[in-house]
Amino acid sequence: NKFNGDWNKINDVAKYYEEAFTFFCPGVRIVKSQDLYHNNDDYWKNLIKFSKHMTLSRAVRCLTIMGRNEKEQLDLTQYLYPSMQAVDIKTLDLDIVHAGTDQRKIHMLVREIFPKMKWKVPVAVHHHLIPGLGSINDKTLNNENINQVTNQKIYNKMSKSDPKKSIFIHDEEDVIFNKLKIAWCQEGVVENNPILDYVKYLIFHEFDSFTIERPSKYGGDVTFSNYQELESEYKNSNIHPLDLKLAVGGKINEIITPIRSHFSNKSDLFSFL
């Protein structure tokens, strides 16, 4: 259902991802869906066998569903997704599966069912989901969802389907700053703050320190050697949101400059946006 089911756009996205992954991981082999499914009777047989170990309710629990109305609007193919993702793992003969935390339910299913089928059980590694630039409260969710907070974070993750609230690896410097300036970053609020999240998981991953430049009348420049120091100062309203955003924009721009340069003459690869 990505891009309203437009397969041409979906294929364009795959090319974009392939270019990005080969930049960061030279020599990596990209396997597309048609490489798994086309003329592969064993894949479809395994899909049926795996699905025999599941109930419909279990398939539903593996999907990230936001509210009853969306649940009712799911078409039949979406219920096949958990089984297909699981059988992808089997077909690729993977030792390690790496994904965002939004995929953990499917990987738990894999680790539960694969032993019953005497299939190799992979190690599952999950990484933090980078949030979109909007408020987590931008989305209205049904209170019946028992994992409300977790699902809110999944639903608000950075997504190519919402370009205004996402930073792309090909974004120009001015685009990055413009997006950050309108991002949600309430003064003194650290919970679910996307700008602070970028500092914690992106900037301190790449740099040993983080400096916020300010005029002397507003306290002057301040440097943090770890995220906890920054969070404490921001929580106490000692850091203004705009100063934080400008500093984050500079560092994010610095991080993506190499890959952006790589994409500079490949604009056709992100024409889908």
What can you see in these coordinates?
This protein has 273 residues and is mainly α. It has 2 domains: 31-127, HUPs (Rossmann fold, 3-Layer(aba) Sandwich), CATH 3.40.50; 136-270, Tyrosyl-Transfer RNA Synthetase (Orthogonal Bundle), CATH 1.10.240. Helices cover 49% and strands 6% of the residues. The chain has helices at residues 7-24, 33-37, 41-51, 56-62, 68-73, 76-79, 81-92, 104-113, 148-155, 173-181, 194-206, 227-235, 241-263, and strands at residues 96-100, 123-127, 210-212, 222-224. Strand 1, helix 8 and strand 2 (123-127) form a beta-alpha-beta unit. Mean pLDDT is 87; it is low at 66-70 and 138-146.
- From the 3D coordinates, which CATH architecture of the largest domain would you assign? Orthogonal Bundle
* CATH H-level homologous superfamily name of the largest domain: Tyrosyl-Transfer RNA Synthetase
How many domains? The number is: 2
Average pLDDT number:
87
What topology, given as strand order, has the largest sheet? 1-2
Helix content: 40-55%
Largest sheet: 2 strands, parallel
Task: List the keywords.
mainly alpha, Tyrosyl-Transfer RNA Synthetase, two-stranded parallel sheet, 273 residues, single chain, Rossmann fold, two-stranded antiparallel ribbon, 4 strands, 13 helices
Task: Explain briefly what this protein structure is.
49% of the residues lie in helices and 6% in strands. It is mainly alpha-helical and 273 residues long.
